[in-house]
């Protein structure tokens, strides 16, 4: 997969992705990350990329000209244009499904990081395929949202995590939060790991994990339960969880 970023601050990405899982994925050529400085495509003597909005108003807008020059110089026009995402607070909230779809269907992605009051609408109309937000709040620029999307996307690539099952068991992959995890020591200051995890009974361990996943989702993100299509086994486990949680509240 090839991921490119059009930004005013390419050095921000080097400091974040030059280590850990992302670095390994790049070194092993599972993904190609390329950062472009938008100012390098400005025809202005001072490399200006913003100007005042027509009609007045606070702040500045990013101009269309540097973007048009970038797409033309890169040859990213027509069928050669990568799937282009603008990281915008007005965009669709980023969900695991978006990441799954991108990992499965797109081989070449371009991320646009906005600044100031946003982009000239003609940039969006001419070049952008999707607007994505990481939450209902406003940040100083699109770089951090782009990093979030890149991180979430790369970990879905084959063998990027080293364990092919790791990403498939993450929270939200099946519409629920992931179950709790424990490691050594089995007891710490009187607090023990659940006995079932030490039992070696894989069937009971899997049942416990499914049940605790439902319990955690019920406690922290109950709205997810309303969206999920349950199979028969999950419905039975959910009934047990709801009954147990009800008894706890009564006590």
What does this structure look like?
The chain is an alpha/beta fold. 39% of the residues lie in helices and 16% in strands. Strands 2-1-6-5-7 form a five-stranded parallel β-sheet. The model has no long low-confidence stretch (mean pLDDT 93).
Average the pLDDT over all residues and give the rounded result: 93
Shape: elongated
Tally the helices: 9
Q: Walk across the major sheet and give the strand order.
A: 2-1-6-5-7
Second CATH tier, the architecture of the largest domain: 3-Layer(aba) Sandwich
CATH class of the largest domain: Alpha Beta
Q: Which stretches of 5+ consecutive residues score pLDDT under 50? A: none
Report the count of strand segments: 9
Give the arrangement of secondary structure elements:
Blueprint: E1 2-7, H1 11-17, H2 20-27, E2 32-37, E3 50-51, E4 61-62, H3 64-74, E5 83-93, H4 96-105, E6 108-113, H5 121-127, E7 130-133, H6 143-154, E8 187-188, E9 191-192, H7 202-220, H8 223-227, H9 232-250
Parallel strand pairs: 1-2, 1-6, 5-6, 5-7
Antiparallel strand pairs: 3-4, 8-9
Helix pairs in contact: 3-5, 4-6, 7-9
């Amino acid at each position: 997969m090839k991921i490119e970023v059009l930004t005013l601050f390419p050095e921000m990405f080097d400091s974040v992705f030059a280590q850990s899982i992302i670095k390994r994925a790049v070194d092993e050529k599972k993904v190609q990350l390329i950062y472009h400085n938008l100012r390098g495509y400005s025809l202005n003597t001072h490399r200006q990329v913003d100007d005042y909005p027509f009609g007045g108003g606070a702040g500045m807008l990013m101009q269309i000209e540097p973007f048009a020059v970038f797409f033309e110089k890169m040859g990213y026009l027509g069928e050669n244009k990568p799937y282009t995402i603008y990281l915008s607070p007005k965009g669709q909230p980023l969900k695991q499904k978006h990441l799954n779809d991108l990992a499965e269907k797109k081989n070449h992605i371009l991320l646009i990081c906005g600044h100031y009051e946003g982009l000239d609408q003609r940039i969006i109309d001419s070049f952008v395929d999707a607007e994505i937000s990481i939450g209902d709040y406003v940040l100083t620029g699109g770089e951090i949202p782009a990093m979030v999307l890149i991180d979430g996307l790369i970990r879905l690539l084959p063998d990027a995590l080293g364990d092919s099952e790791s990403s498939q068991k993450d929270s939200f992959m099946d519409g629920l939060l992931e179950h709790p995890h424990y490691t050594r020591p089995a007891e710490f200051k009187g607090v023990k790991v659940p006995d079932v995890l030490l039992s070696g009974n894989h069937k009971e361990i899997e049942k416990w994990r499914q049940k605790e996943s439902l319990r955690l989702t019920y406690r922290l993100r109950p709205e997810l339960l309303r969206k999920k299509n349950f199979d028969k086994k999950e419905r039975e486990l959910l009934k047990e969880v709801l009954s147990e949680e009800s008894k706890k509240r009564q006590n």
